[in-house]
Every structure is written in structure tokens, then in C-alpha cells.
Write a sequence for this structure.
């Protein structure tokens, strides 16, 4: 990798993103181990859901960093934007083939456990209907796939939003272009928070129903703050603003404290506000953490980012995300092999479930990367140079 500041090249593959993505996926997996293993450390359901929330927002922040960079560069320099056709084609080749396989793996596990192949589930998820219908959110077949609709919507919206901003600032000075981009990101953040308040007012059941929450609140508008934070990091990179370690550490601490505080809210009087702001604060926390990682430039730290372990984790990350939930569901089922002698719901049971599930998931992700993901990534590399 070139240059001391990896964020200066947000459209490129850089190791901070790999490390953060691996951490985020680990958090999501731990959350699902606890959920499927009936672990209630703090006496209530989904008490490790905050880990999954942080991880999901991390994915969206990284999407903003990596995908918005080329559009911001074109706007700032007055150049032609990346080809929309190439952008959509590369996103399809990168995301959809393995996503489709993940859907079928979840369906096969459902067939093994219940004896019925879920044709409607497969058809609905192939067209991302899980983001619009409770019929596809209420099933436990492959829990994380609700996020894929949000990603797809962001991919569809990004070229249009960038084109609109480019048109507005087409004759503006550099300083004014930056001001307009920052203003647009601020407006996106405000609209996202306002939308969440409105959504909870129209659908109060979303406070208790994860399925309704994923459709009515945690859609591309409700989660737009995460993409905005990522885009802001991409803008800073394009302007050559070197991350400052002290600023990053302070921002990370503020984000972490705020996130822990907001997910700890149990008072009914503040529950609505906590649910509205939780993803915003999680996205800020992940963006601050990425900023901090980018400010650490010691050779030993750089060697860690360049290590084989990080490279392998990055290669398998998407596959792990797509298949870990069905694998964990299979091994946590009463129809699967008995996981030792630890009672279900205990820490020992969940540790064993996590180990068995991780080994099986990583093995399957490796096979999928080699025989599904890599061929399509090679096709993607032959498309014009967009992220």
C-alpha cells in the first residue's frame, strides 16, 4: 500500500477497512450465537444486540467510505463521474452471486430442520423483498439478510445523488463545493433522524418488533447517517486531511461512551429517543474508530494491517456474514448433534456453539470464496475502473 495515510485513497482496498470489517463481522456473529443459543447475560432477550448494531453500522460506514470516494473526487476536480452502468455492474458482480448462494444455503438448512423447502422465502429474498414485507422478515432462516436491501438501495441512490450534487456545484469554487457536500451530508443526517421519529410515531409496534423495525425504521433512509459518516471520511481523504491520533482517540471515546449509554437505556420515558439515535451514535462510533486506525502510522501497526491473517479475514468476510446464521441455526437446533453437556442458554453452551459454528462457517466461506466469489471478482476486475 502506498502513502502514509490510507484514507487518502478511499476507493481502494485498504487494510484499516479489512481489520474493521473483520471486527464488525465478529461482533455480528457473537450476537447471533447469543441469540440462537438463548444466552441472556443481563436477564432479557437479545442483550448482546448492541454488538450486532455496531457491526451493521460499521458495514454501512465502510460502504460510504469506499464507494463515495470516486464520486467526490470527480465533483471536486470537475471531472466526469464514474460510469453508472459500470458501477451497477461491478456492484452486482461483487454482491449478488454470493448473496444468492447465501439465500439457498439458508433454505437448505430450513429444509433439513423442518422438511419443507421455503420457495416463497427464496423468491422474495432474491428480489430483496425482505426490506418491504413482513412475510420475509418474520422468519429466522437467515437473520442478517435484512441489511442487504439497504445496501442495494444505497447502490441505486449513490450515482443519482452524486449527479445532483455535481450539477449544483458545477461552476462553484473548491471551497464552495466542499461546503455544499458537507451541507448535503448534514441534511441527510437530519432527515434520517427526523424520519426515524416519524416512523416510530406511525409504527409504534416497531419499538418491540424487530421485523417491523427493519422495514419501517432501519431502511436506507433510517440508516442514512452511517453512509453519510462514511462519505464524510471519503471527503476528508480526498482533501488530503491527515487523521490526527488525539482527535481520533477523543472522538472514539465519546462515540463509545455515548453508544454504551444509549443501548443501556431501559426507562420507558427515554426508550423512543434511544431507539431513534442508537444507529446514528453507532455509526459515529465506527467512523471515529476507522479515523483513529488511519491515524496510527507505526511500522508495527502497518505490518499488522498487512498481515496474512487480515488478508484472509477480508477475503472470507462477506461469505462468513452471509452463511454464519444458517450454520449456527443448524447446530443450535434440537435436531442437530448434541453440543456437549452444557445446558442450552449457558455460557458454556454458547462458547461451544460459537466454536463449532465458526469452524463450519469459515470452512464453508472458504469454499464459497474459491468457487463462487473469486470467479465473479475476476469478472468484476475486467469492468471499467470504478469501486
Amino acid at each position: 500500500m502506498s502513502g502514509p495515510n490510507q484514507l487518502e485513497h478511499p476507493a481502494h482496498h485498504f487494510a484499516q477497512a479489512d481489520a474493521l470489517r473483520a471486527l464488525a463481522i465478529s461482533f455480528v456473529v457473537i450476537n447471533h450465537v447469543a441469540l440462537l443459543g438463548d444466552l441472556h447475560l443481563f436477564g432479557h432477550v437479545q442483550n448482546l444486540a448492541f454488538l450486532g448494531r455496531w457491526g451493521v453500522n460499521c458495514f454501512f460506514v465502510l460502504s460510504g467510505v469506499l464507494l463515495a470516494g470516486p464520486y467526490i473526487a470527480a465533483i471536486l476536480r470537475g471531472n466526469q463521474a464514474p460510469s453508472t452502468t459500470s458501477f451497477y455492474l461491478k456492484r452486482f458482480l461483487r454482491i449478488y452471486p454470493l448473496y444468492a448462494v447465501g439465500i439457498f444455503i439458508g433454505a437448505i438448512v430450513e429444509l433439513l430442520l423442518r422438511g419443507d423447502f421455503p420457495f416463497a422465502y427464496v423468491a422474495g429474498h432474491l428480489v430483496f423483498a425482505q426490506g418491504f414485507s413482513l412475510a420475509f422478515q418474520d422468519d429466522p432462516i437467515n437473520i442478517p439478510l435484512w441489511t442487504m436491501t439497504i445496501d442495494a438501495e444505497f447502490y441505486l441512490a449513490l450515482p443519482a445523488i452524486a449527479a445532483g450534487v455535481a450539477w449544483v456545484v458545477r461552476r462553484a469554487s473548491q471551497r464552495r463545493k466542499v461546503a455544499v457536500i458537507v451541507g448535503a451530508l448534514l441534511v441527510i443526517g437530519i432527515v434520517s433522524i427526523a424520519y426515524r421519529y416519524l416512523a416510530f410515531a406511525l409504527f409504534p409496534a416497531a419499538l418491540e418488533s424487530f421485523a417491523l423495525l427493519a422495514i419501517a425504521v432501519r431502511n436506507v433512509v433510517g440508516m442514512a447517517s452511517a453512509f453519510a459518516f462514511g462519505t464524510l471520511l471519503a471527503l476528508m481523504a480526498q482533501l488530503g486531511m491527515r487523521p490526527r491520533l488525539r482527535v481520533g482517540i477523543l472522538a472514539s471515546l465519546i462515540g463509545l461512551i455515548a453508544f454504551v449509554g444509549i443501548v443501556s437505556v431501559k426507562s420507558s420515558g427515554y426508550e423512543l429517543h434511544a431507539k431513534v439515535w442508537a444507529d446514528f451514535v453507532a455509526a459515529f462510533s465506527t467512523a471515529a474508530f476507522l479515523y483513529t486506525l488511519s491515524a496510527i502510522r507505526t511500522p508495527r501497526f502497518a505490518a499488522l494491517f498487512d498481515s496474512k491473517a487480515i488478508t484472509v479475514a477480508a477475503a472470507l468476510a462477506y461469505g462468513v456474514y452471509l452463511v454464519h446464521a444458517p450454520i449456527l441455526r443448524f447446530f443450535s437446533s434440537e435436531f442437530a448433534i448434541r453440543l456437549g453437556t452444557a445446558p442450552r442458554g449457558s455460557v458454556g453452551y454458547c462458547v461451544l456453539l460459537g466454536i463449532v459454528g465458526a469452524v463450519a462457517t469459515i470452512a464453508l466461506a472458504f469454499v464459497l470464496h474459491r468457487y463462487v466469489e473469486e470467479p465473479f471478482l475476476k469478472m468484476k476486475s475486467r469492468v471499467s475502473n470504478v469501486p
User: Anything to note?
Assistant: Confidence is low (pLDDT under 50) at residues 1-13.
